[in-house]
Each structure stands twice: as C-alpha cells, then as structure tokens.
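thread: overnight batch results

M.L. [08:02]
morning all. the overnight job finished for the chain we discussed friday. pasting input first so we're all looking at the same thing
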Amino acid sequence: MFVTDHQRTDPVFREPLHTAGLDTVRGVLACIGDRLAAWSRTSDTILVNPGNSASSFYVKRYHYPRWRQRVRGMFRGMFFGTSRARSEFRALRLMRQLGIQAVRPVSYGERRIGHFVRSCFLITEAVPDAMPLSAFIKTFGHRRESGHAVRVRRDILSSLARQVRHMHEAGFVHRDLFWRNVLIRILPDHEFEFYFIDASIGKRIRLPQRRQDNIVRDIAAMGVLAPNFCSKADQMRFLLEYLNTKRLSDDDRRWLRRVQARSDLMREAELQRLDRGTVFDPPLGAATHNA
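M.L. [08:03]
and the structure it wrote out:
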C-alpha cells in the first residue's frame, strides 16, 4: 500500500519548525527531543528546545503500528473522520478564538497507509514556567500552610472557576477536564494564569441538553482530585464561583449530586493515571511544560 504524509503549520511558526527539523512528517516522527514528557503504549510526548529560537515546542505523537489498532479505531478518526491530532489542533484553535486560555497549536501532521492513519502528531507552543495543576497541587498541597498560602490557594481555585465558567458560557466543553490537563503558570508579581491542554475530544455544543451533560462531565473531572488536596470549604467556594452565586438553590443541589456521582465513577482510574504520570513530571523550576 502507498504511504502519504500531510502536515499543516501555522505560518508564524514555519521558520522555527524548519530550524528545529520539525517541518516534515518524517522529521517529526524521527525527532528524539530534549526531554520525554509523557509515554504510553500508543503515544509519546517530547519537549523540543531549538537552540536559536525564542519558542520551545511540545510534540505529541500517536502511533498505530498494528492493523488491529487501525481497524478498531476506523470510526474514531483512523479511517473515517479526522485524526486525534487534527481534532485537537482544531479544538485548541477554536478555544483561542472564543477567548479561552488554551495552549497555542503550531502544527499537526499525519502519515497514512492507504487511507488508514499509521501515525499522527500535534505540535504546541510550550508555556514558559508552567506545570500541570495536578503536579503543582501534589507538590505543595501537603505542606503546612501559612495564612498567605491558604489565601493563594483560594485565589487559584476562584480564578480557575471563572475560567471554566467562561469556557462553558462560550458553549465549549473540554470533556477531559482533569487537573492534569490544566497548566498553571506563576507570574513574577505572584499572580498566576491557566492554560487548557489535551482538548482532542473537546467541542462547541449548541444543543443545551447535550452541552449540560458534558458540563457535568467537565466539573466532575475537576472534582476528582479535590478531596485529596482541598478542604470541603474550598471545594464549595470553587462551585459557588463557577455558578456565580452566593448560595446554592435546590436546582443547584440536584445538579451537584449529578456531578458528585460522576466524579466518584472517575476517581479510581484518574488516581492511578496520576501516579503513573508523575514519572515524567519536570523538576520544580523547569522552564516549560504542556504535555
């Protein structure tokens, strides 16, 4: 069967990608990178730091070497529809167009055998001095906290709640909104900002009922790790800020029970994934992260 390569790149990044050797599908798939950020049986993510470029990049690659994998996923972008990398590229672009703070997609590419995806990849611009919220909270959550640290944590949760609310008010649902898929960046003036990543199944949903079901999923994912690192009072502040209210109504309480039930179902699998993922967490003070 014949092999075809396809790559699309944001014009702003054509020269930096060329310099880094990431301007061809062959080059991206062969790249070793400077650090392995994540790995699974079918994917890997590497950090690439071009020596003479102002930007660093994360390259997320999906590999499907066996025909069994390709046929099994043919209705999930392997044959019909769009590949996972292309879907995430489009989702991140849409998020940014809607004013949602997401990492900047730089390029995506695909290698197909016949019409089946053999490999695909997404390149995003690395966010300087950022780390996943899960790693940040796990690092600092068990330390004895001063009054200042408590206030900072509350400010972080309130700011995050407002950004998630803005995303949902724009009609976009992430659908994989675990803490590992939110980057936190501490700014020099002790302020902070968030960036959303890994939005391959995210989309803008216009039907209210379908959107509401996915919003429940998003908030449930946000709550999976909360009991380990946040007090019940902190969790309630997050929800009140997200709902933009000072007191829960009866409808809010019924909605919250749906969220809690969904969160309980997700909890064990996410805790296991978090433990596996810490192997690749960068040391504190590492320059970039957005695997």
